[in-house]
Design a protein that fits this description.
Elements: H1 2-20, H2 24-32, H3 36-44, H4 50-61, H5 66-80, H6 86-97, H7 102-113, H8 119-129, E1 132-138, E2 148-153, E3 156-161, E4 169-170, E5 175-176, E6 179-185, E7 191-196, E8 207-212, E9 218-224, E10 229-231, E11 234-236, E12 239-247, E13 250-256, E14 266-271, E15 277-282, E16 292-300, E17 308-310, E18 314-315, E19 326-331, E20 337-341, E21 351-355, E22 357-358, E23 361-362, E24 366-367, E25 378-384, E26 389-394, E27 401-409, E28 414-422, E29 433-437, E30 443-448, E31 454-459, E32 464-470, E33 474-475, E34 477-482, E35 490-492, E36 495-499, H9 500-503, E37 507-509, E38 515-517, H10 533-548, E39 554-559, H11 566-586, E40 594-600, H12 614-620, E41 622-627
Parallel strand pairs: 28-35, 28-36, 39-40
Antiparallel strand pairs: 1-27, 2-3, 3-6, 4-5, 6-7, 8-9, 9-12, 10-11, 12-13, 14-15, 15-16, 16-17, 16-18, 19-20, 20-21, 21-24, 22-23, 25-26, 26-27, 28-31, 29-30, 29-32, 32-34, 33-36, 37-38, 38-41, 39-41
Helix pairs in contact: 2-3, 3-4, 4-5, 5-6, 6-7
């Protein structure tokens, strides 16, 4: 019997060692189960293939461990960049923002978005236009309690926390499941008298983000489903919204809201101040990508058992929502929306934004700036408007913590805002450089517009300004405006700029993607590169066009026929291109705007080999004018 026990022990020990031995199959199972901490440990021990590097980086990314994610993402991009999914670019850029590597983050994010990004300039501009600055302080000195999602409740606060160590461990981050807690806040903004919120509400799964009606008798909160269901090819435990009622001193009648589902998540509820709307985030059908902000209308039900009725969820539109995350909404008494997003331009991770409503339409969100947002996740903003105080959460120290803030008016000046569009198609033109000049012609501001093609500049009262939009292959456009001092601080100016090929008949975009200036061909004598009178007349047209558009830059490309050696023709074409350039310079065109290049016989328009007719030879002998900028 003793020998059998020893044998069983050895077999069990061997099985345990085998089960824990790193393997790609085992690591992938953990990854698919969203056990990212354990998956990362296993991927670290494996050879760095493309799959291993990406899933190791993603495992860190999904737990907001940007310092750790950066290294495998860098390796992934060094070896396998050309075969990566587009969204990997976004995650890599976010990991670089998370360590304030703005130079590389902007480069990768620019490749992802398709236009130039300048985060330091973005932050600098924000400092001038944000409506408030914030003084913040951490509310709990313990850095590892995992607190977030704070809300007002009577004369106390209620928040979400990982601090219940008796809860099961959540494999995503190897930390306890969330519960709701209530606490008092001292005058110096510290959390004290922290106790579990309610045994009737807290369970062995996640509870978070409570919101209460003004009378304190109804609450809404998030709770994770206690089982996983198959959504597509993935087992998922979705998050649902629940309502509970306070009867005497007990929270009871806990019911799932009718628009929650096992197939998608609904979370982060917040009530409007009049209790008639419930805002929340969800990845339900109709969302733009990841999580979006929705709301439902709440009405009292005079019939049936249910006390309230809820409208169908309303998506808040593409001004607010993006293809990435919009979460943690908060609505103030003027219906200004505050929310967290990593889809709008920001400083890294989730940033906090605000959007005011005008005539029922929400305006473009504005980032609240670097006095409250950091390079990591900042979220869960709530506000007491009459006191200009509130709370938010951030993982800037490596763990979720609660912060108190006091906001003060930023000393803003007048602003000019607007967007840049193609004059003819009306399409937005991201990547356009917009420059602001004062009345003396001095540059006082410049920015490269982002995906929404919007610009914003600070100005001063009672001044005249000129604003210019300029993009490659477009004619610079300017608008003048004058500020006043009657209280209107915003001037909306749409810049409509026109492309060269729309403005000029002789400018044509061809199938090869290049933009050509189509002029009569210029000819040279045999074995010569002197500019003949007929060629000069053609080049004078080009001089006129270049004078008309002083920022236009062109390439002068000379081509020969094939009736000599390749080396000879290449030399001859260089000489002819250079002679053409010199003619333009002699006629007043800045040399810096011109490039000359000889192609020899290597790019014929008619590929006739050694059987070319005189006409075909003449077609191949040409000088082409390509717009570079």
């Amino acid at each position: 019997m003793k020998n059998i026990c020893i044998l069983l022990f050895l077999l069990a020990t061997q099985w345990t060692v085998q089960a824990q031995r790193p393997s790609l199959k085992r690591a992938n199972i953990l990854f698919e189960q969203k056990s990212y901490v354990e998956a990362a440990k296993m991927y670290q021990a494996l050879d760095p293939s493309q799959e291993v590097l990406q899933k190791l980086a993603d495992s860190y990314y999904y737990n907001s461990e940007m310092k750790l994610a950066r290294t495998p993402y860098t390796g992934l991009f060094t070896k396998y960049k050309d075969s990566l999914d587009r969204e990997v670019y976004f995650r890599y850029a976010q990991s670089l923002l998370g360590v304030k590597d703005y130079e590389n983050a902007d480069k990768i994010m620019g490749e992802y978005l398709g236009y130039f990004v300048d985060t330091p300039k973005f932050i600098e501009n924000l400092n001038k236009i944000v409506p408030f600055t914030y003084e913040i302080q951490i509310m709990n000195q313990s850095a590892r309690t995992g607190d977030f999602g704070l809300t007002y409740y009577k004369d106390q606060v209620v928040f979400s926390s990982l601090r219940n160590l008796k809860n099961p461990i959540y494999s995503w981050n190897n930390k306890p499941y969330l519960d709701l807690f209530r606490a008092d806040v001292t005058k110096d903004k510290k959390l004290v008298n922290i106790v579990p919120f309610s045994d009737e509400i807290n369970t062995k799964t996640h509870e978070s983000n409570a919101t209460f009606t003004t009378d304190g008798k109804t609450m809404y909160f998030s709770r994770t489903n206690d089982k996983r269901v198959l959504v597509g090819e993935e087992l998922v435990a979705t998050v649902k919204l629940y309502r509970a009622e306070l009867i005497d001193t007990v929270w009871t009648n806990v019911k799932e809201l009718p628009f929650s589902s096992e197939l998608y998540s609904t979370q982060h509820p917040v009530l409007s101040t009049d209790n008639t709307k419930l805002y929340f985030s969800s990845d339900m059908p109709g969302s733009m990508g990841s999580f979006d902000i929705f709301y439902v209308d709440i009405t009292e039900n005079s019939e049936g058992d249910e006390k309230f009725q809820y409208s169908a969820p309303v998506h808040m539109g593409s001004t607010i929502n993006t293809i990435h995350r919009e979460q943690f909404p908060f609505i103030d008494s003027e219906n200004t929306l505050y929310f967290a997003s990593d889809g709008h331009q920001g400083m890294g991770g989730l940033d906090i934004y605000m959007s005011k409503v005008f005539d029922g339409v929400y305006s473009k969100p504005i980032n609240l700036g670097e006095t409250i947002n950091s390079e990591l996740d900042d979220f869960g903003y709530i506000l007491k408007e009459d006191e200009d105080t509130g709370y938010f959460a951030s993982n800037r120290t490596g763990h979720d913590n609660l912060y108190a803030f006091t906001r003060k008016d930023n000393q803003r000046q007048f602003t000019v805002v607007g967007d840049v569009r193609d004059k003819n198609s009306k399409n937005l033109l991201p990547g356009t450089t917009v420059t602001l000049f004062d009345e003396d012609g001095n540059q006082v501001g410049q920015m490269v517009v982002g995906e929404d093609a919007q610009y914003v500049f600070n100005t001063e009262p009672n001044k005249t300004y000129t604003i210019e939009g300029h993009q490659a292959f477009y004619i610079p456009t300017t608008e003048k405006f004058t500020t006043n001092d009657d209280g209107n601080i915003t001037f909306n100016i749409e810049l409509a700029i026109e492309s060269y090929d729309d403005a000029e008949e002789i400018v044509v975009t061809k199938d090869d993607g290049y933009i050509y200036i189509e002029l009569e061909n210029i000819y040279f004598d045999f074995n010569k590169w002197d500019i003949k009178p007929q060629a000069a007349r053609t080049l004078d047209v080009l001089v006129g066009l270049l004078n008309k558009y002083p920022r236009m830059e062109i390439e002068l490309g000379a081509h020969t026929d094939n009736r000599a050696s390749d080396l000879y023709n290449l030399h001859l074409s260089h000489q002819r291109a250079a002679a053409t350039l010199e003619y333009l310079v002699e006629n007043g065109i800045n040399r810096e705007r011109l490039r000359s290049k000889g192609y020899g016989e290597r790019a014929p328009l008619v590929d006739c080999g050694d059987k070319c007719s005189d006409e075909e030879h003449s077609i191949n002998r040409r000088v082409e004018f390509i717009i570079l900028k």
